[in-house]
Design a protein that fits this description.
Elements (H helix, E strand, L loop, with lengths): L1 E8 L13 H9 L1 H4 L4 H8 L2 H7 L4 E7 L4 E8 L15 E5 L18 H7 L3 E4 L10 E2 L14 H20 L4 E6 L1 H12 L7 E7 L11 H6 L3 H10 L4 E2 L4 H10 L13 H6 L11 H7 L4 E2 H13 L9 H8 L16 E5 L8 H10 L5 E5 L7 H4 L3 H17 L2
Parallel strand pairs: 4-5, 4-7, 7-8, 8-11, 11-12
Antiparallel strand pairs: 1-2, 2-3, 3-5, 3-6, 9-10
Helix pairs in contact: 1-12, 3-12, 6-7, 9-13
């Protein structure tokens, strides 16, 4: 593992402006008369700036770090070391919070709602040292010491590798940089899946976690209601092979899967019509009661941020088998990697950290029956179920009332655990 700081953004430092993953799409969108008057210039700008430029715009301190995993992937991490208005003295040792995004997403999830609303900024103002990870293959982590993302070999990974390779690499770097011994971990969706993989396969990392906060926890998926993932599930064991044969390793917005999802959500009467070309909402569901529609261009500017076909296939395997187990490569490769014909289950009894589950039956990807099963199989004696009945899958990030309904509670729990 190696790591280095790429740049530190403070007053008086100038860097070259960066663009968000979907900035070209936003340019086309706002040129149309229908959208040009609907959104403010501030929203349009936020949609096109990348994460470092966004944080710089709002005058928060930022460090950009790169770390290299043992298998050669170069991951970019974004750090907000202290607040802008409160708890803003540089160089003070603070409790570390590590934030991990979900499928098709990036560190942008935690800051695009802006100061006062986005969790990354809220945590910094509350006195936390905020580290935001980026999994291999997303917009900020598309480099490797040897492999090229234009080749399918680069994309030969699922969330299994993100969990047991990417996460420990990033967590260890954050601890080394800060001198802290432990962190608080917050994951959304795939960010929770990866954490469960980490502590089941590498239980020594339990000792580095003060608390884990699982927003929309995804492990068991027997009751999943995502139309896209349920469509994939019957073909989960062959979709990766087919994709490799035709030279596809990455899922991005121009995929055939997106086209299929768009046909479902693009009816004239559908509330999802305006976002029918975005696979993120096809996977995660739509909840107009909580989503701030003014933020739609910003969301579109930063998501999707990239994913491998195998990440989708692995979730498809979880739906098909109704189990939480390692990736099924086929019996020959399974024998070589696992010493058995079928992939082993993740040993959830190895996970003993204090863990808090935030979930909702309004969330197609994290249904309560699956969360209850996960809760029962965990080894931790400190585990709490905190239902949020009205939340959809994306409301944990961009819901209008997410601060009073969720973030304030999480901050309070972290502060209590820090005092113990």
């Amino acid at each position: 593992m190696s790591g280095r700081i790429l740049l530190l953004l403070v007053a008086g430092v100038t860097i070259v402006s960066g663009r968000s993953p979907q900035s070209d799409y936003i340019d086309d969108l706002v040129r149309t008369e229908r959208y040009s008057q609907r959104f403010s210039n501030n929203v349009k700008e936020d949609a096109k700036l990348d994460v470092p430029e966004l944080i710089k715009k709002y005058k928060y301190p930022l460090e950009v770090h790169e770390v290299t995993t043992p298998d050669g992937y170069i991951l970019q991490m974004h750090r907000i070391p202290h607040g802008r208005v409160q708890n803003n003295v540089p160089g003070t040792k603070r409790p570390v919070v590590f934030l991990m995004h979900g499928l098709l997403c990036s560190s942008a999830d935690w800051i695009i709602s802006g100061p006062g609303s986005a969790f990354g900024y809220i945590l910094a103002e509350e006195g936390f040292d905020v580290w935001m990870g980026n999994a291999r293959g997303n917009y900020y982590s598309r480099n490797h010491v040897e492999l090229n993302p234009d080749n399918t070999d680069f994309w030969d990974f699922s969330w299994d590798e993100i969990g047991h390779i990417d996460l420990p690499t990033m967590i260890d770097h954050a601890l080394a940089e800060t001198g802290n011994e432990k962190i608080h971990y917050v994951g959304h969706s795939q960010g929770t899946t990866a954490f469960l993989v980490l502590c089941s396969l590498r239980p020594e990392y339990n000792d580095k976690i003060i608390s884990m906060h699982a927003f929309s926890p995804v492990a068991f998926m027997a009751h999943n209601e995502s139309p896209v993932l349920n469509a994939i599930a019957p073909f989960a064991n062959s979709i990766k092979i087919l994709a490799s044969l035709i030279g596809i390793g990455e899922i991005m917005p121009n995929s055939m899967l997106l086209t299929w999802a768009g046909q479902i959500f693009c009816k004239d009467s559908a509330i999802t019509q305006e976002i029918c070309s975005n696979i993120l909402f096809a996977v995660g569901g739509w909840n107009d009661a909580h989503l701030n529609t003014t933020m739609m261009p910003v969301i579109f500017g930063h998501t999707p941020a990239g994913s491998s076909v195998k990440q989708f296939a692995h979730y498809g395997q979880s739906i098909a088998t109704k189990e939480f187990r390692r990736y099924n490569h086929g019996f020959v490769k399974n024998l070589r990697l696992y010493g058995r014909r079928s992939p082993p289950k993740y040993d959830l009894s190895n996970i003993v950290v204090p863990i808090f589950f935030y979930y909702s039956d309004n969330d197609p990807l994290s249904q309560s029956k699956d969360v209850y099963r996960l809760y029962e199989e965990l080894g931790s004696e400190s585990k709490v179920l905190l239902p949020l009945p009205s939340f959809g899958h994306l409301d944990y990030l961009w819901g209008i009332d997410v601060k009073p309904l969720l973030y304030d509670t999480v901050v309070q729990l972290m502060e209590v655990l820090e005092d113990q």
